[in-house]
Amino acid sequence: RGTKRGNKRRVIRCKAAVAWGPGRPLTIEEVQVAPPKTHEVRIKVIATSVCRADWAYLYAAGTGTKLRPFPLVLGHEAAGVVESIGPAVDRFSPGDRVIPLFQPNCGKQDRRCTAETVQRRKDWANAQVGVMADGTSRISCKSQQVYQYLGVASFSQYTVVSDASLAKIRDSVPLDKVCLLGCAVSTGYGAARNVCKVEKGSRCAVFGLGAVGLAAVMGCRAAGAERIIAVDYNPDLFDTARLLGATDCVNPKDHSEPVQRVLTQMTRGGVDYAMECAGSPFFMGAALESTSGGGGTCALVGWTEADAVEAVSVSAETILMGRTLKGTYFGDWEGVEGVEDLLDKYKKKQLKLDEFITHNLQLEQINKAFDYVNCRKSIRTVIRLWEGEATQTPAAL
C-alpha cells in the first residue's frame, strides 16, 4: 500500500535501455529498480533527452574518454515525478514533479570544507562511476548490477537519485521540454550569464552550435550583447543560431585564414567574450585567440575527457596581453536554485526550450536518437518513456 513516502519498500520492474558494453547498441530490457535508501528519491522518468556525452561514453569509450563500468544505463537530462522517498528526505514528496541533476546541490559552498560538502564531493565522485553514496547501484538486470550514469540513469522508466541532485518543478510546465534544463541549456546559458558575465553592448563569439552552444548564444542575447558571432562547421545550424540571437554565422571552411583571425578582423580587434562549447581542443585555442587583448575573456564550456591540456597550444603572449581563460561545469549554477531560476524564465517566455527539440521518439527507438547525434542531424532528441497516460504504473514486486 502507498504511504506518504510512496511505495518505498517495493522493487519496481520496468523497461530501460541498457548498454552492455562500449560500442554496442543499447537494448531494451526489463530491469528491477530497488527502493530508495537514506537521502535518496525514486522517480518515474517521463521524458529524457540524448546528450552527446551519452553518445561519447558509449561509442568513444577508451579513445580519450574515461572507461566506465558496464552494464550501464545512460541518460542524465530528464524530468519526472517522485514515486517514493527514502529516510531523511524532507524536501520532496511522492507526486512532486522534478528534474534530476548530475551535479549535487553544493554550489559555491562546495569550496568550503564542511562535513556536508565533503559528503557531496564523495557523492559526486561515486556518481562518476555509476553508483550511489553507498557504492552500489539501485538498478539490476538479469541478476547483475547495472551502473547508473552520472548517478541519474534516465534511460530507465524508473530510477533512483540523491535528494541533493534534484530540483523541484513548482509550476505547470511540460516535462518533455524542461528536461533540457538538466544539462545542455543550463550549461550554455550559464556560461554566458554566470561565467563570462556578458555585458550589454559587448561583442561575443560562440564556438560550436550544439545545444550547449545555442544556449550560450541565447544567454548572450539575453545579456544584451551587441554582436554575437556563431561558429560551426555545420551551416544547417545557422538558422537556429540566428533565431536564438546570433548576428553573424561563420563556417571556418569558408575562409582561407584561421577562424580566430577572421573574427578579429570582423570585430576590429577581437571579441570581448568567447565561449568554446564543442569540447574541441582546436576550437579552445581559436576561441582564446579570438578575444581582444587587454581584457578579453574566454570560457571553456564544452565537455571533453580527452587530454586537451597537451592538445591546446596557447602562447604565453596570448595570456600576458591581458586575456582571461576560465572553465565551467554546469554553467556555474548553484544547483537547484539555478534550475528553479531558469524554470521561471521559461514560464515567463524569457528562455526558449522548444526550439532546441528537433525529434521526439519512444524508448524503443533510442538507438535512432544516438544515430542522430553521431550524424549531427539533431540538436536535441527527446525520448518519451511512457505511452498513454503519464500516470501509467508498471508491475511492481
Automatic annotation (TrEMBL):
PROSITE patterns: ADH_ZINC. GO terms for molecular function: S-(hydroxymethyl)glutathione dehydrogenase [NAD(P)+] activity; zinc ion binding. Its cofactor is Zn(2+). Gene3D superfamilies: Medium-chain alcohol dehydrogenases, catalytic domain (3.90.180.10), NAD(P)-binding Rossmann-like Domain (3.40.50.720). Coiled coil: none annotated. Pfam families: ADH_N, ADH_zinc_N. Signal peptide: none annotated. GO terms for cellular component: cytosol. GO terms for biological process: formaldehyde catabolic process. The keyword Metal-binding applies. It comes from the Eukaryota. The keyword Disulfide bond does not apply. Keywords: Metal-binding, NAD, Oxidoreductase, Zinc. Residues 23-383 form the Enoyl reductase (ER) domain. PANTHER family: ALCOHOL DEHYDROGENASE, S-(HYDROXYMETHYL)GLUTATHIONE DEHYDROGENASE. Belongs to the zinc-containing alcohol dehydrogenase family. This is Zgc:77938. It comes from Gasterosteus aculeatus aculeatus.
